[in-house]
Here is the input.
Amino acid sequence: MLLPNMKEARKRTNVKPEFLYNEYNVNQNMKIGKNKKYFIKTYGCQMNEHDSEMLCAILEEMLFTKTDVMEEADIILLNTCAIRENAHNKVFGMLGRIKHLRETKPNIIIGLCGCMAQEEIVVADINKKYKWVDIVFGTHNIHRLPNILLEAINKKQQEIEVLSNEGNVIENLPYKRENKYKAWVNIMYGCDKFCTYCIVPYTRGKQRSRKKEDIIAEVKQLINSGVKEITLLGQNVNAYGKDLYDNYGMEDLLYDVSQTNIDRIRFVTSHPWDFTGKMIDVIAENKNIMPFIHLPVQSGSDRILKLMGRRYTKEEYITLFNKIKSKIDNVSITTDIIVGFPGETREDFEETLNLVNECKYDLAYTFVYSPRENTPAAKLPDKTTEYEKKNRLAELNLLINKYALENNKKMLDQIVPVLIEGISEKDNNMLTGYTDTNKLVNVKATEDNIGKIVNVKITDVKTWSLNGEIVS
Ligand code: SAH
Ligand code: SF4
Ligand code: F3S
Here is the structure.
């Protein structure tokens, strides 16, 4: 049993991560999944979605087949998220629902992995109260799933293997990508920013950039398999390379990836701190880097930004925002905002509203602050009631929605490029795709357009999506 340790997870040393090219391996003894099915439920961010693509690939190499019906599964994995309390609650609710399956299927394997598995309190709970969960493993050892699974089956007891180290870079990982035309590509793991409210640096280890040649090789391989759009993934992609190279950063990587001639490049998430002027120029000059930037601000109050440890002021953020807007044609900018951070006053909140009025975001993801065990912000005094926080969230959302719709209205009658991904789930006669600026569009077009980037005239706009028809 290897249990998580948040104190260990916080440590950052000068030891460089190892680059491991032979760490993942499925041997004949591990191919135990014949005629058996697996079901995975994924919570959280793109990082977790992409990790689930790895879980799928590993299980399929073990000969399991995928099912979307949980009741049919012989193995159920919950790939969890720890970012807010409600993410936790959803997982514990789900565990409650899964328990009864155990009674009708005694040999079913139930597993918990992802960011919650990196938390001491969660794993202690699972170990005490959820003995019927068979395996628990963390974010650093997903590639060891076959070993952990076999161990649990052989020993017939709960197997917990969670590492709380800084992490390595494991390179021979398999991915089963669901989308044929769009792919995520990890460029770095972990995070060293330690924003005071955030649990990610504890659950994902220290910042570790992948080598540029490994990233480029993956992109080229994806192009060969028909992928049109890649999203470079990391918690703080603008800091790419700082831990690995003296003189090669995100602007260089973006440029090199753009030279592969992939049709579309996106990247998430950009911390404003590391966004360089050179990076803006590279995005502006290379047309296959999409004019879309997710630039989380978190708060418009300098006092709160400081308490959050975000390392920029409102004014610095707005300067960067305006520079991006003026240099990159037609750029769309989205953000993340937290309301009700400990000690946030009505005045602080109004600073956030002012900032939104100034930036007029295309979209924003908004959250009520959720205290995370062992993070510095969780110890700060906080007098604001939950009721008041929810009111602030509702007020903020009204403003966000207003600007989202206003921005979309400007697109009416415009002709924009859309990568058509498939048939709309809501209306079988429509296809769906995304514009270069990452707006969802329902398109009237024939199915032979799936997988292509086509010109679409926008005929109707809503707050969250656009409608359009193909033009030739
Ligand atoms: N690395 C990204 C953010 C990843 S987490 C960045 O720095 O921009 C996604 C979002 O969840 C954050 O931007 C923040 O808005 C929100 N978040 C993180 N911790 C939170 C907490 N404790 N309570 C509420 N929201 C939180
Ligand atoms: Fe969390 Fe801040 Fe790192 Fe983003 S940059 S993952 S908010 S600590
Ligand atoms: Fe959640 Fe972990 Fe992502 S905490 S937001 S799944 S990095």
In short: The longest strand covers residues 415-423. The radius of gyration is 23 Å. Residues 191, 193-195, 198, 200-201, 235-236, 271 surround iron/sulfur cluster (ligand 2) (CB under 6 Å). The chain is about 35% helix and 20% strand.
